[in-house]
Amino acid sequence: MVNLALSLFLTLPFILSVQGCPGEDHDHTHIEHKRAFPQAAVTPPTRALEWGDVNIIHTTDSHGWLLGHQKSSFPEPNYSGDLGDFASFVSHMKEIALRKDVDLLLVDSGDLHDGTGLSDGFPAGDVDAHESNKFLAQLPYDVMTIGNHELYVYANTLDMYKNFVPKLKGRYLSSNVNITVLDEHGNVVSVPVGRSEMAFSFIFRGEINDVTPWVARGKKVTALGVLFNFKGNDKNTTVQPVADMVKEKWFLDAIKEEPDFFLLTGHMPVVKNDWPLVFNAVRAVHPHAPILILGGHTHIRDCVQFDGRSMALESGRYMETVGWMSMKLDHKNSAENLTFSRRYLDPNRVTYEVSPLHAIPRIINLKLGTTEVPHNGEKPHLRYATREIDVQRSQSSCKVIRPRLRLRDPYPSNSSLLTLFASKAMPVALSINNTRANVPNVIIINSGIQRFDLYSGPFTRNDQLTASFYADAFFFIPDIPAGIANQVLPALNGARANEGRALMSELEKFENELYGRGYVDMIYMRWLDEMDKRGGVERRAAQNATLGYVTQDSCPGIGDDVVHAPLPFFTPPRFISSTPPNVSDDTPVDLVFVDFIEKRVLQILNTVQTTKNYTAVDVQTYSPVLSNAVMGLYAQQAWN
Ligand SMILES: *[C@@H]1O[C@H](CO)[C@@H](O)[C@H](O)[C@H]1NC(C)=O
Ligand SMILES: *[C@@H]1O[C@H](CO)[C@@H](O)[C@H](O)[C@H]1NC(C)=O
Ligand SMILES: *[C@@H]1O[C@H](CO)[C@@H](O)[C@H](O)[C@H]1NC(C)=O
Ligand SMILES: *[C@@H]1O[C@H](CO)[C@@H](O)[C@H](O)[C@H]1NC(C)=O
Ligand SMILES: *[C@@H]1O[C@H](CO)[C@@H](O)[C@H](O)[C@H]1NC(C)=O
Ligand SMILES: *[C@@H]1O[C@H](CO)[C@@H](O)[C@H](O)[C@H]1NC(C)=O
Ligand SMILES: *[C@@H]1O[C@H](CO)[C@@H](O)[C@H](O)[C@H]1NC(C)=O
Ligand SMILES: *[C@@H]1O[C@H](CO)[C@@H](O)[C@H](O)[C@H]1NC(C)=O
Ligand SMILES: *[C@@H]1O[C@H](CO)[C@@H](O)[C@H](O)[C@H]1NC(C)=O
Ligand SMILES: [Zn+2]
Ligand SMILES: [Zn+2]
C-alpha cells in the first residue's frame, strides 16, 4: 500500500510581491510557522457523518484558495483549513473507509484557476495556477473535471493539458472540452484536455488507482466530466454543447454497459442547467442504475434528487465547503429508492478532526498536523508539513485597510466594498497617467466586478486578487452631456418604469449572456439574499448559532454540518457608478465603463437620447489600468 504521507511543502518562490510600497523590503520573507490550532471556542459538528457503501468527498470551485481563509472576522475562521489540513482529513477518511470496507472517492468539479494570490500572483511570463495546481496534484483525487476558469486563457488550458493532466494519470475528465494543439507531426489537432482516449468514460478497478488502492475494489464506475455550455472560452479551445455531446457515438458507447454506478462529475450547477440532459440520456438506457452527480460553478451549496436512485450535490466555493455524499448500494435491477446522505462541511481543523473521530472514536486518536496515531502497526500514519506562506505578514503591510469592507453590506455605505471601489478607488486609479484626467467623468461598472470582501488589516496582493480577479478594461465615450450621462445608470438598473417588460427581458437576456460567459455572482448573491430573508434576523437574534451559510436545498434532512445563522445581506444594484461630477447638465463629460458591459451601455445610451446613434465606433480605450489593478493602485495612494 502506498503511504499517503503528503508532504505539502509550499515552497513557492515568493510570488506575491506588491509593487510600489516605498521602503518596503520585498525580499522573500517566508514565514515557516504552522498556523496555530484555532484558539477560539469552536463549534464542532455534532452529528456523525453517515457512511454508505460508496462515499464521496467533494470539492469544487477552489479558485486557488489552498491556504485556507486567513482572516479573523467571522465566519472566515470556519474556513481556515488549508490544503495540508484537508489532505490529512482525506487520508484519515480513506483509512476509515478501509476499516469499514467501503469505498471513498475524492472528486473535484473544476475551476482551479483565478481567485487568490497563490494562483494568480505569478510573475510575468508564468502561467496562472501552475504552481498552486502542483499542490492539488499531490492529493489523491479520483476524478477531477474541467471548469470554465480553466478556459479563459489558452496558456492556462495548455498548462493543464501538458503539466497537470498527466499527473492525474487518466483521472482528469473533459468529456465535452477540447484543446487545439500541434501533434508530433506538426499537424493541428483538437483533442480532449483531459483523458485523451476514452476521455469520457472510465472504469475504476482497484488497480488503476495506484494512489488509493482500496478505492472501488472491483466495482465498476463509469465517470464523465461535463462542462456547461460555456461561451467565453479562448480561441483554440472547444466546448461542445451538452445537448450535442449526449448524441455522440462515444457517449452512447461509454454508457452502454451498466456499471455498479455512474459518477457524473461536471462543472454545472445541479439546479437549472444541463444536468437533466446527461441524466436522462443515462436513465434512458439504465432505468435503475445508481447515478451520483457532483456539480459546481454557481458557488452555492445545493442538492437535488432527480429520482430515488440518484443524488446531485454542489459544494460551494473557495474551500468554504467540503461536500460529503454517501450511498448504500442494493442489488442490481432493484427499483427501490436508494439511501443517500449529503453534508456540507465547514473546512477547518476542528471539522477535519472531529468528523473522522465520530466514525471510529476508539481506534483513531488523531491529531492533525502532528501525526502519532496508534493503529495496530499497519502502516505509518500521515505526516505532513505545510510550510505556509504567510500571505498577510510577508506582504507590504504599509497599507492598512480600515474598516472591514464587505460586498454584502448596504450599498452605498461606509463599510460597502462597492461604495469604496466605485466612489473612491476607480476615480483615483483611473486618473493615474491619464490625459483625460481633467475631464469630468461618470464611471459605470457592473457590481459583480468585485468578488470577495476586504478585511481590516494589512492590504496584500492576495487581498487585491481575491477581491477583484476579473481583468476588465475601461472604455469611454467622450463628450456626452452630463445630463445624459447621468441618466445611463438609472436606466441600466431599470429605474425607468415605462420600459417595463421590454427592459426586464433585456436584463434577462443580459444575465443569460453573462451566464454564458461564466459570471455567476448574481446567482451566488441571490442565494445569500434568500438565506438572510428566511428568518436571518431571528436566527441572529437567538444567538445560539454561529455565523455561516444556512442551506436550504431539496434533499432530505439538514445539509449543513454545523447549524449557522446567516450574515445580513443587502443586494447591491446590478450596476453602480462613481459619484457624478457637480457640473451643469450641458457640460461634456467622459462616459466611462468596463468593456464587459459595452453593448448594454450603448443600447441604453441610445434610449436616453436620440440625437446621435452611438455605436462601437464611438468607444475608445480610457486607461491601460484593468479592473483587477484598481484596488492596488488606490491602496498605494490612499492607504500608505
Ligand atoms: C465558526 O465561526 C464562529 C463564529 O461565527 C466561531 O465561534 C466558531 O468557533 C467557528 N468554528 C470553527 C470550527 O472554527
Ligand atoms: C475532440 O477531440 C476528439 C479527438 O480528436 C474529436 O473526435 C472530437 O470531435 C473533438 N470534439 C470537439 C467538440 O471538437
Ligand atoms: C490554434 O492553434 C494552432 C496550432 O498551434 C495554430 O496554428 C493556430 O494559429 C491557432 N489559432 C488561433 C486562432 O490562434
Ligand atoms: C423515492 O424517491 C423519490 C425522489 O426522491 C420520491 O419522490 C419518492 O416519494 C420516493 N419513494 C418512496 C417510496 O419513498
Ligand atoms: C461614513 O464616512 C464619512 C466620511 O468619512 C463620515 O462622515 C460618516 O460619519 C461615516 N458614516 C458612518 C455611518 O460611519
Ligand atoms: C505612470 O507613469 C509612470 C512614469 O512613466 C510609471 O512609472 C508608472 O508605472 C505609471 N503608472 C501606471 C499605473 O501606469
Ligand atoms: C436557537 O434558538 C431558537 C429559538 O429559541 C430555536 O428555534 C432554534 O432551534 C435554536 N437553534 C439551535 C441551533 O439550537
Ligand atoms: C456644486 O457646485 C455648485 C456651484 O459651483 C456649488 O454651489 C455647490 O455647493 C456644489 N455642490 C456640491 C455638492 O459640491
Ligand atoms: C445605429 O447604428 C447601428 C450600427 O450601425 C445600426 O445597426 C442601427 O440600426 C442604428 N440605429 C438607428 C436608430 O439608426
Ligand atoms: Zn467558480
Ligand atoms: Zn465556473
UniProtKB/TrEMBL annotation:
Cellular component annotations (GO), alphabetically ordered: cytosol
Domain Putative 5'-nucleotidase C-terminal positions: 408-602
Molecular functions per Gene Ontology: hydrolase activity
Residues in coiled coil: none
Annotated Calcineurin-like phosphoesterase domain residues: 55-300
Signal peptide stretch: 1-20
GO biological process assignments: nucleotide catabolic process
UniProt keyword terms in alphabetical order: Signal
Domain of life according to the entry: Eukaryota
Name of the molecule in the record: Calcineurin-like phosphoesterase domain-containing protein
